[in-house]
Amino acid sequence: VLLERAGALALQGNEHALAVERFEAARTTFETAGETHAAARAAARQSVPLWHLGRSEEAAELVEKAFAVLATDEPDADIATLAEAAARVHFFLGDREVALERVELALEIAEAEGITEVISQALNTKPLLLKRRPHEALALHRDAPAVALENGHLLPAGRAYNNLAIALSSLDRVEEAERVELEALEFARSRGNVVSAIWFGAIWCVRLVENGSWDEAFALADEILPYEEATQGNVAQAYGVLAEAALERGAEDEARRLLGLVAPGIAASPDLQVAAIVAERDRLLARLAGDVDLELELVDTGGRVYLEQPDEQGAAEILAKGFDVAR
């Protein structure tokens, strides 16, 4: 249990490699002692920093192995936690049917047992699988942070705020999305939640660039971003957006520095979000190299990845950049 807590603290502190190490030690200890449910819980928690590090296939293998061990056991909080974690990682790998099956199991157990952390996480994961029903998805996204906040679950609250803002943006409710993002950033800072503060600081950097407030964006980045390697989500996206802004300003060395932080060593990934981030990184590197044909090819690659998610808004944005290049 102490090793699990240590892993949770490392995760909250944005130390993903250390979190993986500590959760791995906890899981191994539980397995050696024959405590299969505790081992499954640790596996579920380990899958989160693995995902952050771009190791989604490893995370999926880990949770499914644990799931197979518990397949015939009576449902409990550990199985619910594991099922939700499995749903999340399968979503990012594009395994939508498996993800939906797992998240429904997580909700069924969690609702029956009153496991509020799993309820919040599952309410946050399920709407990701309802892209064709955006208003139903938005209703679930609104409930997820409410459940987390009412019950003091800090990391689930941060994740719920994030996906609520994305859902609002996808429905062109940008002002409301921005209010949610700022509220989330202030919440994370007030609670000393480092990983969520970085996460929402990264979102706000992107917003500032999009709104033309480039100086403010770079100042906030210097204040809140760790400038460490990032493979997933908002931080990796922010480095890419800031790199493009730097490139537009003629600051090529700064653009290269920022792009060097984005998914280093990863040329391709089965994780659809990582694949989109890598395509965008490589598109900007192609621009730096003056290779217009390669940049257009990577616009096409990025657009296809977004459509596979499916994320029509992301695909439209990347294709618009392609039109600008082709002029």
Q: What's the gist of this structure?
A:
The protein is an all-alpha fold. It has helices spanning 2-12, 16-32, 36-52, 56-69, 77-92, 96-113, 116-125, 134-150, 154-170, 174-190, 194-210, 214-224, 233-248, 252-259, 272-288, 292-308, 312-326.
Would you give an account of this structure?
The chain has about 325 residues and is mainly alpha-helical. About 80% of the residues lie in helices and about 0% in strands. The protein is built from 17 helices and no strands. It has helices at about 1-10, 15-30, 35-50, 55-70, 75-90, 95-115, 115-125, 135-150, 155-170, 175-190, 195-210, 215-225, 235-250, 250-260, 270-290, 290-310, 310-325. Helix 1 runs parallel beside helix 3 (about 35-50). The chain starts with a helix and ends with a helix. The relative contact order is 0.07.
